[in-house]
Write the structure tokens for this entry.
Amino acid sequence: MKKKMRITFNSPLVLGYALACAVVTLSGALTGEKSTALLFSTHTASPADPLTYLRLFTHVLGHSGMAHLVGNMAYILLLGPALEEKYGWKNLLTVILVTAFVTGLIHNLLFPRTILLGASGVVFSFILLTSFTEFKEGEIPLTFILVAFIYLGQQVWDGITVRDNVSNLSHIIGGLVGSGAGYLMNIKQARRY
């Protein structure tokens, strides 16, 4: 008997994250971006404002529009399920939260008058984390070196030569967080066996 095809909820964290980003972006569109400015973008604000600390994490949910959202979610949905399967949802959530916090904090310190929002730091974290999936202790995967050179090198170059609204620094920081997480999680896993 032929088995019926069915849709599975294969990656709860990644699917939940993508859905949250979509809801936040829609909410921004419906409120004239007021909800995005208030809760889902980070910028330097008074240390007495509790939302300052919340936004250090929630800015990775906000997007400037559908094109921005779709561009980021394509990578998140492509890379995330394999990462969630390999590292588990708790470790992947930690990577997302650390990426959000570090990119938000450094951005606020270096660019206090500029707003930061979007999941591109998380995307770059996922890209570099993916290149560590076949890591063995005592080895550095050539794929990691090539991915780091191509993706991070392009961001450094664009940061120097291109003037746009893209936060190349967030991409670089996200990539560094993903690299560090990939190294640490794989070392820990290799030593367990």
Summary: The CA atoms of residues 28 and 36 lie 5 Å apart. DSSP finds eight helices and no strands in the chain.
